[in-house]
Structure to design on (853 residues):
């Protein structure tokens, strides 16, 4: 009897898989969309990724996965593989193994490489900024909502103006966050100031939210004497101890295991705070990502990993980056609760990170959040993304899925925002930005001594000697050295 | 910005002078041989990036068991060195990898161990460290630890290195010395387009794993005549690219063009400098350096990497061992400072022409 039962379950499983596959095909034939075509087509021809604006996948997700979305409302996890794993407690043929009982079966079965359906994406606002019906959200205050919207606009404007400054040759490099404003700002808004942030590099919105001023951003990009990094790093490598924001480092994914260590410290100190660390989709391929997830689970560290899955790592599309159903699915393998959220829905991101923070701190455990979004800008000012991705894909995400416009519609609908406030905000931010750039550009560079300080707490003799020799060289050949660096 | 442009401009003039001087000096024996063999000889003006690209085309064309892969190589690479390869040789032989350097090198070792030529790209030398274990503990010891049953000699790791004027900590490093401390791999750095093509082909075809660092500042700036045909330049052979009698200068890669300028200026002061391009850092050609120092009695080494523990230290120690009685002055090192590579302070950090010139003078007048 037990054997028959198992077999019948196996058959059902295979049938389900087949039907699931057909189901996906059917869905695909009536529309294609960015994320779906990735899952169902192995050909990565760029035209198959061109999204159909009218038939957004998200709206279909919301109807097809209402059930699962509901399950996500509780902070309980949704066990993706439950249906597959044996659950018969009466099965006496079980192995006692560290971690719990493991059932025996006599039929060989490989765990599937994927689930029948993709992990659903939690969202609250549809593309039009309408609150999805029956989503019972706690009311977010007008004050917070308006601040979120304003900071999203500020981030967008800072990107436009700093990018332009780079094009004019005034700063040497820049990276925009265009398309990811909601992921940036809404995640920051959901945190407390005591929460420690270890960023990748495309999260300046978190700093902005915490009060890093436009002048401070400009000072870093110009590498002047007011830059906290003392002109040593490339533009966009911000950091602020005061704002609990570790300094950006270019090597990808190195911040992740560090975040776990920092979180362990908060745990030992019994702090009412967690660590939040960001990573791109590309970054999840690095060994450090996997080390970090495993450490976090084993050390039960209060850390939130936020993966900005924006579809691209420079020119490498996510289909060339991993074959799993994105990032969220990886959490379970490490024993970490995970969730996928619409990264372009500020409200959903806010709610998700609020909940994640609550779990991370109260249960002292890690959480993995995958935010589905899109890198609308080029990778950086050194990149021309039209070389490797279709223009209409960019256009679609820039217009139809624009996170700032979407949130604005919702805020406006609530009567919290008007055209007048919009134009006032924009002209005021613009003025501040131009002013910040002008001042930062005129401010002198850090003095020469900063080349030698901070290598260690105190300069050892080799550096003292090198500084002395360098100053002698400068005296002999002043024409070799930039005049804007004070000696 | 103005100062940035000035720096850029200086490099530009350097590259023009390099075009004139180094291209004539670099006719290695192999080239000459092959020139004789080859009936009609054509050469084209190429920059270093295109020369690398040509070498990769040739490598893939001449060996069907050769592969090119790394982050973003499919669309041509962030420096455009792999342009056109996927189109020409297909996605199975030229492909993007996930963003994982340890994966790239480990994969390359396995591919090479099965009798293939694995040409792996690390996007910047600054990002080679996640692959350090695979290179140092695996690639370098693959042959030795198996009693020569296995080897991964088909592995070549390409990585752009060095300063570019605005790269800061993580787009400027010269990590060659770390790898020179590892028996079992070779480390090669070309100085010019013609050298790059011939040396890269040698590295790819060498039966040992090689780390090939490309001077990224010269990708577009250095232009010279590059023979169009398939040629290889010998590894572990240094080249005297300028003869002189008063002092020997040793360097590699992009630094040579700076040293060349210092030699030219020193000549105006009546000092005759001999300039040697080491090309292969390990196993290195001590004999050529020794012969030169026996002649001049003085030695200066220059590299961009920090002076402490740099490969200049090894050269210095070896030459002191061999030429102690012949030396007329302490060996001079003009190198990067013992700091992380800085952004705003880059002009101060660098081993500039005038720092070299000063050192030449004080060594000669010791
Ligand atoms: C260790 C390392 N390897 C390579 C790079 C070069 N690089 C910089 S950004 C990047 C792509 C990152 O993509 P992703 O993680 O998706 O972040 P996104 O840029 O999309 O925000 C690469 C390969 C690096 N910075 N560090
Ligand atoms: Mg990405």
């Amino acid at each position: 009897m037990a054997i028959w039962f198992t077999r019948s379950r196996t058959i059902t499983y295979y049938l389900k898989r087949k039907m699931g596959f057909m189901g996906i095909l059917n869905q695909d034939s009536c529309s294609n969309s960015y994320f779906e075509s990735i899952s169902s087509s192995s050909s990565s021809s760029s035209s198959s990724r061109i999204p159909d604006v009218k038939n957004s996948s998200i709206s279909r997700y919301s109807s097809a996965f209402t059930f699962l979305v509901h399950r996500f409302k509780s902070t309980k996890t949704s066990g993706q593989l439950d249906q597959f794993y044996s659950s018969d407690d009466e099965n006496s043929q079980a192995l006692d193994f560290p971690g719990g009982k493991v059932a025996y079966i006599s039929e060989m079965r490989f765990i599937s490489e994927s689930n029948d359906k993709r992990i659903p994406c939690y969202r609250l606002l549809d593309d039009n900024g309408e609150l999805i019906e029956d989503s019972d959200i706690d009311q977010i205050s007008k004050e917070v909502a308006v601040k979120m919207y304003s900071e999203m606009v500020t981030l967008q404007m800072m990107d436009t103006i700093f990018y332009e400054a780079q094009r004019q040759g005034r700063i040497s490099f820049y990276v925009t966050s265009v398309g990811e404003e909601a992921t940036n700002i809404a995640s920051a808004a959901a945190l407390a100031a005591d929460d420690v942030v270890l960023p990748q590099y495309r999260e300046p919105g978190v700093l902005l939210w915490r009060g890093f001023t436009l002048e401070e951003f400009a000072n870093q990009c110009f590498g002047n004497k007011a830059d906290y990094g003392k002109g040593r790093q490339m533009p966009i490598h911000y950091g602020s101890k005061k704002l609990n924001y570790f300094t950006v480092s270019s090597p990808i994914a190195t911040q992740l295991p560090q975040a776990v260590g920092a979180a362990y410290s908060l745990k030992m100190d019994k702090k009412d705070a967690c660590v939040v660390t960001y990573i791109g989709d590309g970054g999840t391929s690095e060994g450090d990502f996997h080390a970090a997830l495993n450490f976090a689970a084993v050390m039960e560290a209060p850390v939130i990993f936020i993966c900005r899955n924006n579809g691209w790592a420079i020119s490498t599309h996510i289909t060339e980056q991993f074959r799993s159903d994105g990032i969220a699915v990886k959490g379970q393998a490490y024993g970490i609760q995970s969730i996928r959220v619409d990264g372009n829905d500020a409200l959903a991101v806010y709610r998700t990170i609020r909940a994640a923070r609550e779990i991370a701190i109260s249960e002292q455990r890690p959480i993995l959040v995958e935010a589905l979004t899109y890198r609308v800008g080029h990778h950086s000012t050194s990149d021309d993304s039209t070389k490797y991705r279709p223009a209409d894909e960019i256009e679609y995400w820039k217009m139809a899925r624009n996170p700032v416009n979407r949130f604005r519609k919702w805020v406006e609908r609530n009567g919290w925002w008007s055209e007048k406030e919009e134009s006032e905000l924009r002209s005021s931010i613009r003025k501040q930005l131009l002013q910040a750039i002008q001042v930062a550009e005129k401010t002198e560079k850090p003095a020469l001594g900063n080349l030698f300080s901070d290598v260690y707490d105190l300069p050892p003799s080799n550096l003292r000697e090198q500084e002395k020799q360098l100053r002698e060289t400068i005296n002999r050949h002043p024409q070799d050295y930039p005049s804007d660096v004070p000696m | 910005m103005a100062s940035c442009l000035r720096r850029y401009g200086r490099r530009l003039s350097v590259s023009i002078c390099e075009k004139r001087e180094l291209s004539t000096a670099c006719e290695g024996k192999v080239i000459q041989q092959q020139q004789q063999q080859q009936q009609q000889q054509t050469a084209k003006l190429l920059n270093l990036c295109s020369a690398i690209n040509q070498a990769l085309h040739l490598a893939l064309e001449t060996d069907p068991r050769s592969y090119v892969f790394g982050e973003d190589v499919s669309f041509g690479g962030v420096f455009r060195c792999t342009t056109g390869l996927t189109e020409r040789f297909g996605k199975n032989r030229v492909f993007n990898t996930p963003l994982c350097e340890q994966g790239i090198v480990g994969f390359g070792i396995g591919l090479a161990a099965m009798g293939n030529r694995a040409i792996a790209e690390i996007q910047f030398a600054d990002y080679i460290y996640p692959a350090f274990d695979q290179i140092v503990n695996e690639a370098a010891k693959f042959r030795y630890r198996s009693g020569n049953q296995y080897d991964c000699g088909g592995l070549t790791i390409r990585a752009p290195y060095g300063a570019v004027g605005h790269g800061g900590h993580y787009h400027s490093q010269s990590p060659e010395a770390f790898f020179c401390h590892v028996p079992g791999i070779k480390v090669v750095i070309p100085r010019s387009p013609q050298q790059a093509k011939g040396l890269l082909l040698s590295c790819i075809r060498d039966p040992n794993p090689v780390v090939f660092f490309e001077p990224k500042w010269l990708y577009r700036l250095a232009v010279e005549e590059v023979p169009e045909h398939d040629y290889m330049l010998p590894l572990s052979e240094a080249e005297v690219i300028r003869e002189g009698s008063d002092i020997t200068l040793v360097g590699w890669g992009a630094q040579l063009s700076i040293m060349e300028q210092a030699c030219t200026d020193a000549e105006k002061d009546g000092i005759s400098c001999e300039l040697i391009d080491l090309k292969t850092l390990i196993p290195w050609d001590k004999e050529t350096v020794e012969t030169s120092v026996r002649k001049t009695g003085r030695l200066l080494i220059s590299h961009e990497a920090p002076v402490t523990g740099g490969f200049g230290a090894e050269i210095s120690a070896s030459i002191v061992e061999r030429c102690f009685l012949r030396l007329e002055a302490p060996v001079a090192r003009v190198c990067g400072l013992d700091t992380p590579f800085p952004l705003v302070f880059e002009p101060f950090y660098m081993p500039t022409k005038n720092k070299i010139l000063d050192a030449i003078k004080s060594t000669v007048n010791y």
Notes: Chain A touches chain B through 52 residues (CB under 8 Å). The CA atoms of residues 343 and 371 of chain A lie 4 Å apart. Residues 1-76 of chain A have pLDDT under 50 and may be disordered.
